[in-house]
Amino acid sequence: MCSVCGGRRAAGASPIRCVGERITATGVPEFREVAWRACEGVLAFDESDRARSKSTKRIYKVYKQKHKGSGGYVNGQTIVLLLLVTSSITVPVGFFFYMPDPALKQWDKEDKRLKNSGIAKKDRPIKHERDSAYPTKTEIALGLLKEFKVAHSLIKIKGVLADALYGEKAFMDEAAKESGGSQVISQLRKNQNIEYRGRIRSVESYFNSINKGIDQIIRVRGGKEIKVTVSSARLKVSSHSKKRFVIALKYDGENDYRYLVATDLTWRTQDIIQAYTLRWLIEVFFEDWKLYEGWGREAKQLDEEGSSRGLILSLLFDHCLLPLKIRETEPKRSDDF
């Protein structure tokens, strides 16, 4: 049972799941309106870090991580977050705490030390199996997707968006399967190989020398038009062992391309680009969330339940503001006072 709202959830399920179930089942008219507006949309994954005390031992899944501001190291927490993006709202619908496997992390550190010392691979310790208590970010993301489908089976998933961390074959194929065959869009690294006319070359080399981009105007959410340089092709991605829709995209003022990769080959180039621009709404959400709604800034509660309480309340606050936002942006109805 959820300690915040009293909703029941399956063992090991994301704590926010029961929040979403209660919103869609509530009798409050404004919340029913929010649920109705979420009848279809795009799911987007990303992760967020929160620095904690250097001496903490009891905060759930705290580990040593790089601090972007100072360049040093701090103890911090990481969550993988799932957001639902519809034509009118963007709401968090799932989260899970991530932490690297401590045993694998220690093995990797020792393996690098022995390698630098000239020890042959056959004489170095064998890599441990990953502990199931410490799933990878892609495993967490797929778990959140499965939970969402179970909890909100009536919502049609039009697409799944994720950054380059999730641009591997296993994730993209499984995400497409779990979402009912919807489009899955991620990114490739510039040095990843593609096959073209029997030759293997990097995706960067292909789009810079063979298939150069052209300038286009695209319309992003809100109707704003922006200038981009685009090129695309349906190419076999070597690491995926199959054809993908690959797009080189560069915004006005940028020097380097980013390389989008999509599973559904039937979509148009422009449709994929416009769908992927919705991923930036996650950055907007993170900025607002951390600045105004917090994430346990002064949290003193310990262990998993303690960390989850503050996070649930923080995310639930976003849900509570939605009905007010909807009423502000729409014409006044006859039954409004």
Supply database-style keywords.
337 residues; 12-stranded mixed beta sheet; disordered N terminus; disordered C terminus
**Euclidean distance between termini CA atoms:** 37 Å
* Count of helix runs: 9
Note poorly predicted spans: 1-33, 333-337
Compressed to H and E, one letter per element, the order equals HHEEEEHHEHEEEHEEEEHHH
What is this structure, in a nutshell?
With 337 residues, the chain is an alpha+beta fold.
Note down, in words, how this protein is organized.
- By secondary structure, the protein is an alpha+beta fold.
- The protein has 2 domains: 1-99 and 134-162 and 279-337, no CATH class; 185-276, no CATH class.
- It is 34% helix and 28% strand.
- Strands 1, 2, 3, 4, 5, 6, 7, 8, 9, 10, 11 and 12 form a 12-stranded mixed β-sheet that branches.
- A hairpin with a 4-residue loop joins strand 3 and strand 4 (90-98).
- Helix 2 (29-37) crosses helix 9 (303-329) and helix 4 (137-151) runs parallel beside helix 5 (169-178).
- The chain starts with 15 loop residues before the first helix and ends in an 8-residue tail after the last helix.
Helix/strand layout:
Blueprint: H1 16-25, H2 29-37, E1 40-52, E2 63-66, E3 73-85, E4 90-98, H3 102-116, H4 137-151, E5 156-161, H5 169-178, E6 183-188, E7 193-196, E8 199-202, H6 203-209, E9 214-219, E10 225-237, E11 242-251, E12 258-262, H7 269-277, H8 280-293, H9 303-329
Parallel strand pairs: 1-5, 5-6
Antiparallel strand pairs: 1-3, 2-3, 3-4, 6-12, 7-8, 7-10, 9-10, 10-11, 11-12
Helix pairs in contact: 2-9, 4-5
